[in-house]
Fold these 2 entries.
Entry 1:
Amino acid sequence: MPVILVAPAAFKGTLGPRQVAEALAIGVRRAAPGASVLECPVADGGNGLLDVVLPAVGALRERLNVTGPIGDSVSAEMGWIDGETAIIESASACGLALVEPEDRDPLRTTTRGVGELIWTAADRGAKTIVVGLGGTATVDGGTGAARGFGWTFENAAGQQLPDGGGSLTDLASFGSGWGLGARVVALADVVTPLLGPDSAAPVFGPQKGARPEEIPHLAAGLARLAELWARAGRPELGTLPMGGAAGGLGAGLVFFAKAELAAGAQWVLERAGFDAALAKADLVITGEGVFDRTSLVGKAPGEVVRRAQAARKKVAVVAGRVEGMIGVHTVGGDGDGRMLDATALAQMAEQVAREALGL
């Protein structure tokens, strides 16, 4: 009987990766009752990172009050992989989902809560802090996060700048923060740099609520920040791949926290033992809310497809919407996945498994 590997990401706003994997497995077992089904939920630094990396039972997860994206207090989550390794999702502290659509404004929104979580983890003895960068409401170059562990940002008159990406055009100097006694690993799901035509402000600004006329202002602020980083000995940060992730939080953590940037999907799949499961599989099924060409550049489901194809395995995709996929069995609706529940996902998995296995 076939071995079927189910390896989906979260369907944002609906179900976490483990819930999606369970629903797909139900459908697969209906299609192929004798099959051996392996569940390996995945993430890439965005939504569902803690769900995937931490076991469902017994993991240490806690909620902490931190500064939210528009300055109010929010309850953010921090987990512990072991006694010396903390893990956080930036979106938990400054995510787009925490801001009402009418309040989304990357000129003002801040990553400060991410820095507060990092500082708390270090203060509690973390030797390594893993930070997922996806899903933020911010384009502040990580200056907010830096404030969370003591950095200051001043204009030419020596006055403190307000939080957000909008004030960075007035940045004249910054003051060093408190020493972080921890290694920071920042997981990105994009390769976007901080500066340039396909960079943080033009690519992510609109998603986070910036109006077209505000994009050049945000870009100019990030360029000013990069100019000061260059003067401080880090001229490469403006063009560093993944530096533009989370509106520049990637590059910001490299400078302010000496972080290492890593491809989130690869980091998670290695940790989850994906390749060992893949070696046994006859069919691989992945999924996310929308699967399109951008999914193949850094996103976890795209990495699943890439590895499955490289291993010459049959691969299928279940999504709320599928666009432009060739050579992959797909089943998708006409939305973004938010209207799909576990029952619908199970039905889609049953259909795609039957098609892929010729049942």
Entry 2:
Amino acid sequence: MITIKTKDDIRILREGGRRHAAVMRKLAEHVRPGLQTRELDELAVRLIKEFDTDNSGDQSSLLGFKPKGARRPYPASICVSVNEEVVHGIPTENNRVLQEGDIVSIDFGLKHKNLFTDMAVTVQVGQIEAKLAILIETTKKALMAGIKAAKGGKKILDIATAVELVGRGAGVGIVEDLVGHGVGYGVHEEPNVPNYTSGIRDERVVLQPGMTIAIEPMFDLGGKEVFQSDDDYTIITADGLPSAHFEHTVLITKGSAEILTS
């Protein structure tokens, strides 16, 4: 069911999104060669508490979350996905040491006063190849194009079209097995918000003021095919080529969408 948030909900989501973005900014600044991915998870836990200035009980919405079809709850507070890992890399179990030239995606949800925001960024580790820098910039550009298209009265199809146009124009691969989604009262809500237009399920859904959705392009340097690793969570490109991921939670209004995790 698609949900419309109240004025009080939106006030809480704005504050949660502000804190969420502050934590993410610090995590991204911490990325460097030699850093272990589990250190990012540990830092995220500390930062969430640090930015919870009124003791609201803020926490990661991922730790202990069990998506539909999963065999076990997610065992970390954030997702850290390196290079060929598209999303949902488990930093506490699949600890990796970041190397010069890597790219790393950080993704997590924040629960603030029982309402949820979602956000992801991809960060370079030291100096990276030009093609990786272009991949990161293209994915970020696609996110902003999707947000620009997310106006009240428009449709999910408009978002998908805007994101896809950026990806196709740059010649990158668009991951189709994973999509954006509604968010707010839960970690994942309806509708789906895909990054492509062919055969999507919720294309005719009209965007209504008060909806909150997570738009999240996932592009790579190869094809669209991915697979799930044996840890039940990490999604990896089938051809082993690097992937980038950006995400914001946005509020649909009568005009331009408001980025809650800006």
